[in-house]
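Appendix B. One record, verbatim.
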Amino acid sequence: MNTNSTAYQGLGAMLTPDNCALMLIDHQPFQVSGVKNIDAALMINNVVALAKSAKAFGVPTLLTTVLKDRGGNLIKPLQAVFPEQVPIDRTTINTWEDRNCVRWFEETGRKKIVIAALWTEICLAFPVIHALGEGYEVYFVTDASGGTSVEAHEMGIQRMIQAGAIPITWAVFASELQRDWARTETGAALAEILLDHGGASATNLAWEWQLLGLDQAAS
């Protein structure tokens, strides 16, 4: 089997717990209030699930805010995933122009960066395009981000894809890190995240376990 790949093809294009790092940008009250392309509660559910997935697989994760004294602290359910981490607070709209944030990523030694941010067309698109220009492979999480309108979100996505970035969703991120249910050391944690945040799929999974007489807590 040929395992050669580019950033877009082959096994090497897949995310693993050892080859990527996650950056979560500006999930703050002011920015959440401006999200119009997706229900804000659903977006919050998704970004928390994304963060929990990264934590379960040991993926380095950075929390960052912009002007928190005005825009508010990081939303509580997201901060609760990493209660010990103090988000880096920036003045720059483009996170990739903040030296502290870039230094953090450089110190991970990873070449694949996964980003979710508010808002899609600005605080997501700017660092994605900037990091691509510096040779990183960039993946952006569409359903854990949000734009100020449907058009703004979609135009931001198109711009990032044209620049060479790869769109994913939070469930793709989690599933790509797992990739094999035989990896039992992370399978149970992922199942718990899916039950808590998977919407209709979570309901079906819980029902299936009930019909099979399985102990949800032990699965």
